[in-house]
């Protein structure tokens, strides 16, 4: 089977950190947490997201607070989304990977019903064997979603020749739990310092990530 990449969306193929920060600060305001700079956010952020909010508040958010946080985030993110763009070089890398006879898919924790039109809006749908977003409640980990994604691709993809490229420690942890490899990109939600402890390669550009994926799946 061909070498395969499972791509993350937010913070990886999609450069949306300014929108994420704006949406997060809108959410923080609902519980009295001061706004953050981008670097402060990247240094603090973690998944699952309720744990991130728990650390900021110093206690577990109530159910009402969690719903208010989640709603405020998504309302503001939707407002800011039109200004988001693809990460530099992403389109060329996607095109080149397929042109070389390899395959790729997309798995995001962004809501599936919103992800599909967003990917289509950038003209990317045809580059992927499969596009999956989050189905169900927000705020959780990617591991279970990745297992289902790979199960759906089982007849087309060899786990031994598959690499997940993402921007969060949770991406790598999900990949390792599913028995595939991972490469983490520093341009998204986490600082390099937070990524290096996971035990997978960490790179500063998507071009480096793809080149590494090519080598380790050959």
Automatic annotation (TrEMBL):
Signal peptide: none
Protein name as annotated: HAD-IA family hydrolase
Keywords: Hydrolase
UniProt xrefs under Pfam families: Hydrolase_like
Keyword Hydrolase among record annotations: yes
GO MF annotation list: hydrolase activity
SUPFAM superfamilies per the UniProt record, alphabetical: HAD-like
InterPro entries: HAD-like_hydrolase_sf, HAD-like_sf, HAD_sf, PGP-like_dom2
């Amino acid at each position: 089977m061909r070498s395969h990449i499972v791509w993350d969306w937010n913070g990886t193929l999609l450069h949306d950190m300014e929108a994420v920060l704006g949406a997060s600060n809108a959410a923080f305001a609902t519980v009295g947490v001061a706004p953050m700079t981008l670097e402060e956010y990247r240094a603090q952020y973690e998944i699952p997201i309720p744990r991130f909010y728990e650390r900021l508040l110093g206690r577990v958010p109530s159910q009402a607070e969690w719903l208010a946080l989640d709603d405020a985030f998504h309302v503001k993110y939707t407002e800011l989304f039109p200004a988001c763009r693809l990460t530099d070089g992403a389109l060329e890398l996607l095109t080149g990977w397929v042109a070389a006879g390899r395959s790729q898919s997309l798995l995001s924790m962004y809501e599936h019903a919103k992800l599909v039109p967003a990917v289509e809006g950038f003209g990317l749908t045809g580059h992927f064997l499969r596009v999956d977003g989050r189905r169900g409640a927000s705020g959780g980990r990617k591991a279970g979603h990745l297992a289902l994604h790979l199960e759906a691709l089982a007849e087309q993809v060899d786990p031994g020749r598959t690499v997940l490229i993402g921007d969060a420690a949770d991406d790598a942890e999900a990949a390792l739990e599913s028995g595939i490899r991972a490469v983490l990109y520093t341009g998204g939600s986490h600082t390099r310092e937070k990524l290096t402890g996971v035990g997978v390669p960490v790179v500063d550009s998507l071009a480096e990530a793809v080149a590494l994926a090519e080598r380790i799946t050959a």
